[in-house]
Amino acid sequence: MTHKEKYNGTATVDVIIPAYRPGREFGELLHRLEEQEYRPRRILVMNTGEQYWNREWEKCPILEVHHLEQKDFDHGGTRRRAAELSNADIMIFMTQDALPADRKVIGNLVCAVSENPGAGAAYARQLPRADCRFLECYTRSFNYPEQSSVKSLADIDKYGIKTYFCSNVCAAYDKGIYLKTGGFTERAIFNEDMIMAANMVQAGYQIAYAAEAKVVHAHKYTYWQQLTRNFDMAVSQRQYREIFESVKSESEGIRLVKQTASYLLHKGKWYLVPDLVMQSGFKFIGYKLGLRYEKLPMWFIRKVTMNPRFWREQENR
Questions:
Q1: Where is 100: in which H helix or E strand?
Q2: Where are the beta strands (DSSP E) in the chain?
Q3: How far apart are the C-alpha atoms of 289 and 231, rounded to whole Å?
Q4: Which of 73, 161, 162, 190 is within CB 3.0–4.6 Å of 249 for a Cys-Cys bond?
């Protein structure tokens, strides 16, 4: 099936961005989206906290902003609400801290979805920022290699949890397949993108990785932030255990550590090995705690989560 057959011509595209206290870089993101060769029809921004919004950004002619209160934000629910506002053929979800590396990002994501008839989603390659640390740069290349790929249910034994990998830092979704597979979950502390991708894979669809679609994005997490992030990730896997318990997950993390250590030694960066050990240790502790969150007291959970508001709402439900 060709692009034309799948969408009866040129696919319409909406870009959706959840935002919270966006800084000056957000204006550059809007500019780069406007300048894309494959121009989006709309940029839908789901902004948490109207008081933090810069109205100068509304000069962008294709921008549409929806304000919500912090108590109403949810990683899955807010994206689900945004998807309900879009009737485009393809929805591209981005985060506020990602920047298109060139003018071809949207076009390459559209191609990745449209040229693979079974593809329900496609995610972009993430490139490190210029000031990115050496370890972070290598991790980016491990998770986002130069070669594109397509994964399906047949790849579960080979890739394990990586089969479900997708990143809403920059990812495109076929709206029709999105609706058929239930859309984003209403409640998610983390991993809403992988939960959505897993539902698509289990329904017989594919997840494409579009290495040609490139965005610049990186985090500078401290050891403690690594722990809290991995705690929340494991909590999401535990809460959606029907999806994640059937696939291998820890082996992928071990493979990353081994390959990174080998790479550091090969490059003569042996002095970074202790940093790798510390990062990996904090990630592992956070992950193991998250898998056992149901046995932990709430006061402790609030200290080791990246999202304390999620737990306050859990208590109030």
A1: strand 99-100
A2: 13-20, 42-48, 63-68, 90-94, 99-100, 119-127, 149-151, 170-174, 206-216
A3: 6
A4: 161
